[in-house]
Specification:
The protein has 157 residues and is of the alpha+beta class. Helix content is 30%, strand content 31%. It contains two helices and five strands; from the N terminus they run αβββββα. A five-stranded antiparallel β-sheet has the order 4-3-2-1-5. Strand 3 and strand 4 form a beta hairpin. The mean pLDDT is 82.
């Protein structure tokens, strides 16, 4: 059991959790389709944070063409490149499942304003800068792979 805990601690990332329930976030995550990699953005409201340790997950909900779409992301996943806070929400609950039943303006969360919001956004963006470096490294790696594949001569059949 001790071995598992040490491996889990190595996988933890200190700057991964820079948001809270009620925030509107943009999640940049890596998608692998065959041999190609790309980064997709999922923007929505964080309605829940569950679990503990490396198994911690967060649920993001958005409306897409009138249909509610929820996606669960692992906090410490290497596929999640960065989480960018767009708006800071003011909520008094840890789970916002009631948002599923709301429609239109009723599904909105109040925005936190003032000095607390400014300090929170500054802290969140400082942590996001570290994630930007990781995203740039992935993009550079992908460009290098594409250039190597283009330079490779194709065999005739």
């Amino acid at each position: 059991m001790d071995l598992i805990r040490t491996i889990e601690e190595q996988q933890k990332n200190d700057h991964a959790l820079n948001y809270k329930v009620g925030d509107t976030v943009k999640v940049h995550f890596e998608i692998i389709e065959g041999k190609t990699k790309r980064i997709q953005i999922f923007e929505g409201l964080v309605i829940a944070i569950k679990g503990s340790g490396v198994r911690k997950t967060f649920t993001v909900r958005k409306d897409s063409y009138g249909v509610g779409v929820e996606r669960v992301f692992p906090v410490y996943s290497p596929r999640v490149i960065k989480v960018e806070v767009v708006r800071v929400g003011k909520v008094r609950r840890s789970k916002l499942y009631y948002i599923r039943d709301k429609i239109g303006k009723g599904a909105k969360v109040k925005e936190l304003v003032g000095q607390k919001a400014v300090a929170y956004l500054k802290w969140s963006r400082d942590l996001a800068k570290v994630a930007d470096a990781a995203e740039a490294a992935i993009n550079a790696e992908e460009k290098a792979e594409n250039a190597a594949a283009a330079a490779k001569p194709k065999a005739k059949k």
